[in-house]
């Protein structure tokens, strides 16, 4: 968790999180994770963020009316007083140059986190765990529907 001090009614943070002597602002790890997660999801070429349970939970939460989509789901952060590091697992769209996508993700996450929190982003580790091929989802859905209908007792 990052702590930033300031005096007076409003709290301000310097670019590197320096303390200005006007009070204290605390930025929770989850806030940084949410900012980073949203920046990652908005990057063209990212199909999904997170694996397994966190990915499924994020998909379900996104469909429930009035619920938060969990922007930080699938994103792990380590937040110090002035710096932060981000770890993320992503699934990329087929055909996207992964090294270029990783550069765009790092730029967008760094810009968003540093602008919104004043923390310096020192590291962004990206683990590409899968490639999404658009036709695979459609084929799997059709196969699943066929197997369900043929397995029914008539």
What report would you give on this structure?
This protein is of the alpha+beta class and 154 residues long. It is built from 4 helices and 6 strands. The protein has a single domain, classed as 2-Layer Sandwich (Alpha-Beta Plaits), CATH 3.30.70.1350. The strands form 2 sheets. Strands 3, 4, 5 and 6 form a 4-stranded mixed sheet that branches. Strands 1-2 form a two-stranded antiparallel sheet. The longest helix is centred in the C-terminal third of the chain and has 20 residues. The radius of gyration is 20 Å and the shape is elongated. The protein starts with a strand and ends with a helix.
Summarize the structure.
Belongs to the asp23 family. The protein has 154 residues and is α+β, with helices and mostly antiparallel strands.
Spell the H/E element sequence: EEHEHEEHEH
CATH superfamily membership, which one?
A: Cation efflux protein, cytoplasmic domain
Question: Whole-number radius of gyration?
Answer: 20 Å
Uncertain residue segments: 5-17, 53-69
Annotation, overall tally of beta strands: 6
Tally of structural domains:
1
- How is the main sheet built? 4 strands, mixed
Query: CATH architecture, please?
Result: 2-Layer Sandwich
User: Would you tell me the overall average pLDDT?
Assistant: 79
CATH fold group: Alpha-Beta Plaits
Region (Disordered): 1-25, 132-154
Organism: Streptomyces silvae
Family: Belongs to the asp23 family.
Pfam family, one: Asp23
């Amino acid at each position: 968790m990052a702590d930033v001090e300031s005096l007076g009614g409003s709290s301000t943070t310097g670019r590197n999180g320096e303390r200005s002597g006007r009070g204290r602002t605390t930025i929770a790890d989850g806030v940084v994770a949410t900012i980073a997660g949203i920046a990652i999801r908005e990057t063209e070429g990212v199909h999904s963020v997170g694996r397994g349970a966190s990915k499924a939970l994020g998909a379900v939460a996104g469909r429930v009316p009035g619920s938060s989509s969990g922007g930080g789901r699938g994103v792990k952060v380590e937040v110090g007083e002035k710096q932060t590091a981000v770890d993320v697992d992503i699934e990329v769209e087929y055909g996207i140059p992964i090294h270029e996508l990783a550069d765009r993700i790092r730029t967008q996450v760094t810009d968003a986190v540093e602008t919104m929190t004043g923390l310096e982003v020192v590291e962004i580790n990206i683990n590409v765990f899968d490639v999404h091929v658009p036709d695979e989802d459609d084929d799997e859905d059709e196969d699943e529907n066929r197997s369900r209908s043929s397995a029914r007792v008539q």
